[in-house]
Automatic annotation (TrEMBL):
InterPro entries: DNA-bd_dom_put_sf, MerR-type_HTH_dom, MerR_fam. The keyword Coiled coil applies. This is Heat shock protein transcriptional repressor HspR, fused homodimer type. Keywords: Coiled coil, DNA-binding, Stress response. The gene is hspR. It comes from the Bacteria. It comes from Deinococcus oregonensis.
Length: 255
């Protein structure tokens, strides 16, 4: 699988450092900070994957082009690793459900119904209440929306409505700016990844739900089919009806 090949550790540290135009000691520092997670050979040699190279280039972009401080970079890369882990979890979940389907076909068991969507995404708070909940001015929330740091819903009358997840995002923005000193460019990168992570999680849940629904439908149809014994019995009854009323052929005498 293409995704698996990107995570395959192949580059030693000297080659990885050359590919991203960094000193090997910088890569070791980033590893200690948890910004990258290289693999290890059997001899404990660091080995970097294509995905690690992408992460290192992203770190360089954040620090050199956007001026994001190390605390902001740590937040970005933590979210990026969560996205990578989410992709792995998605693939593992697909394999698990396929295996469950095979077992249920053998056992003639229906799957359990899937879970409903997260109620935290339901838009309920008007902007004045949302601003009060996160201790911000409503104008600040409008600014963050223009920067696409948050994405509130809209009522039928176009009134902004914020969900519990929006409130969580606003509190996270305040933590990044006030506690960690991350600049707005860094916050934008972090929140973009947060939205991507939420979207990936929703996509995963939606695909799992579709698979569960498909399993339920298939199993319901399969259970409605007659068993091989019933099919044989029906076939036998039909042949008996067809022969009924037909004259019995006379036996020919042997000469």
């Amino acid at each position: 699988m293409a995704n698996q090949s990107k995570h395959r550790p192949v580059y030693v540290i000297s080659v990885a450092a050359e590919l991203v135009d960094m000193h090997p000691q910088t890569l070791r520092l980033y590893e200690r900070k948890g910004l990258i997670r290289p693999g290890r050979s059997t001899g404990k040699t660091r080995l970097y994957s294509e995905r690690d190279i992408e992460h290192l280039r992203e770190i360089r972009r954040l620090t050199q082009e956007l001026g994001v401080n190390l605390a902001g970079v740590e937040e970005v890369m933590r979210l990026q690793h969560e996205l990578d882990d989410m992709q792995g979890e998605f693939e593992a979940e697909i394999e698990r459900i396929e295996g469950e389907l095979r077992e249920q076909v053998q056992q003639k068991a229906l799957p359990a119904p899937g879970e409903k969507l997260d109620p935290r995404d339901r838009p309920v708070y008007v902007i004045s209440i949302a601003a009060e909940l996160v201790d911000m001015h409503p104008q600040t929330l409008r600014l963050y929306e223009r920067k696409q740091l948050i994405r509130p819903g809209r009522s039928s009358g176009k009134t902004r409505l914020y969900s519990e997840r929006d409130i969580e995002h606003l509190r996270e923005i305040r933590r990044l700016t006030q506690e960690l000193g991350v600049n707005l460019a860094g916050v934008e990168e972090i929140m973009r990844l947060r939205h991507a992570l939420d979207g990936a999680r929703t996509h995963l849940e939606g695909n799992v739900q579709k698979l569960q629904d498909d399993i339920t439908e298939r199993m319901t149809l399969w259970r409605a089919l007659p068993s091989p014994e019933e099919a044989s019995s029906e076939a036998g009854d039909g042949s008996a009806d067809a022969d009924e009323g037909q004259p019995v052929p006379a036996l020919q005498s042997q000469s």
